[in-house]
Known about the structure:
By secondary structure, this protein is α+β, with helices and mostly antiparallel strands. 35% of the residues lie in helices and 17% in strands. The protein has 3 helices and 6 strands. Strand 4 (116-118) and strand 5 (121-122) form a beta hairpin. Helix 2 (26-49) runs antiparallel to helix 3 (56-69).
Amino acid sequence: MGKDSLGSVHLKEKYYREHRIRLKERADIEAIKAAGRIALATLDLVEEKLKPGMATDEINTLVHEFTVRHGAVPAPLNYRGFPKSVCVSVNEEICHGIPGKRIIQEGDIVNVDVTPILKGYYADASKTFFAGRPV
């Protein structure tokens, strides 16, 4: 166990040993930021493409293809049996909506939750949109 010049246990080792918390180094923080940039860019793409008349599964396809094209893996896919790459919750659905055949209507409230994993680092972000004009 490493000690600094004052003889105290390094904070990093102490946190890991006592709490199983791994304090991040600069490289870790940069990797987390890179994953976060993919998450934000994914939500920007969804905002651009989302429209009434599309199925929630089309959002899944957009998110999946964008995530993979950027070298990441969609964390939700196959997590504890979750069958899709994104959570899409419409109107009354609180969270973790499974994309499928549901058609988005004018004025629907649509929450999209993305979680890319890039080189072992996760980012998780969601954004809520109006489909078309709010009614």
